[in-house]
């Protein structure tokens, strides 16, 4: 054969080799290759070299065990059309019952070992989770103790408690807000007369046993000094402003507010940092851990 024009791989589907099913047609021009199977065909036609075609089954089945025919088509040295064919058989061994049982036992063993491994992982996770939970509980307990040392607590009012800072050398509004946030709350935001009355009565009860403070920061600021007082936490403007007599002074750097003892705990504007006898008041939802006096 002078030249191979195409290779055809077929499956023989009858005992007399007369009925075939073409699977791959590989032409000399690779752009014309065709495949009638979902398998993985490979092949090459060489002008003066070896030509081949192959078929691979990623997941073979019993149906793939059959007789196959590979046919080369081309021209002879006298330029006549000729063809040549070769046959090959793909066989399979039928598994016996014993081999199937062995395989099932092997799978059962692997499943058992995997199950045990999962149990070990769960036990380790449970143990680590227990250690972690103990650490969390310990931290919460320590946080609660520090809360007791930093604050004096009110009774519950509408699902919240109020926490007044204990005696300190100085106060800064930003540090006060950060401390409130650490314990799950914020600088007090008084919005109604009822809330104001409750807060004032709480401050008075603390003041009755501690005369070292005369002013208590709340969560209102007027950063632009334009008369608009805004809550530090919610960023909402306050319409409830029970000022003391002659207040606010509206001095340039008086951007924060406290409840002033000399005004019977009504509002007074003052600087946001004041190295004097000041306290601050946190508002914390009751679902946070609470403390007693």
From TrEMBL:
Residues 157-272 form the C-type lectin domain. It comes from Biomphalaria glabrata (Bloodfluke planorb). It comes from the Eukaryota. SUPFAM superfamilies: C-type lectin-like. The gene is 106065543. Pfam families: Lectin_C. GO terms for molecular function: carbohydrate binding; growth factor activity. GO terms for cellular component: extracellular space. Its main location: secreted. It is found in: Secreted. This is C-type lectin domain-containing protein. Coiled coil: none annotated. Keywords: Lectin, Secreted, Signal. CDD domains: CLECT.
């Amino acid at each position: 054969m002078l030249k191979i024009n195409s290779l055809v791989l077929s499956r023989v589907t009858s005992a007399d080799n007369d009925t075939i099913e073409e699977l791959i047609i590989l032409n000399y021009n690779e752009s014309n290759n065709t495949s009638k199977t979902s398998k993985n065909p490979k092949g090459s036609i060489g002008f003066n070299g070896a030509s081949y075609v192959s078929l691979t089954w990623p997941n073979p089945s019993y149906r793939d065990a059959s007789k196959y025919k590979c046919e080369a088509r081309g021209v002879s040295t006298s330029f006549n059309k000729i063809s040549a064919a070769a046959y090959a058989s793909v066989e399979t061994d039928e598994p016996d019952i014993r081999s199937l049982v062995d395989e099932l036992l092997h799978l059962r063993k692997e499943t058992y070992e995997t199950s045990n491994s999962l149990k070990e992982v769960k036990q380790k996770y449970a143990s680590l989770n227990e250690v972690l939970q103990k650490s969390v509980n310990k931290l919460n307990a320590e946080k609660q103790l520090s809360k007791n040392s930093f604050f004096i607590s009110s009774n519950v009012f509408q699902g919240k408690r109020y926490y007044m800072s204990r005696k300190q050398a100085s106060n800064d509004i930003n540090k006060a807000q950060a401390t409130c946030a650490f314990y799950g709350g914020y600088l007090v935001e008084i919005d109604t007369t009822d809330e104001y009355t409750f807060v004032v009565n709480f401050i008075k009860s603390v003041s009755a046993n501690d005369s070292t403070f005369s002013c208590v920061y709340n969560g209102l600021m007027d950063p632009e000094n334009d008369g608009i007082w805004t809550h530090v936490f919610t960023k909402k403007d306050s319409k409830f402003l029970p000022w003391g007599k002659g207040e606010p002074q509206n001095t340039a750097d008086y951007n924060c507010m406290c409840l002033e003892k000399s005004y019977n705990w009504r509002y007074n504007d003052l600087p946001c940092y004041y190295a004097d006898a000041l306290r601050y008041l946190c508002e914390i939802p009751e679902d946070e851990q609470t403390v007693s006096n």
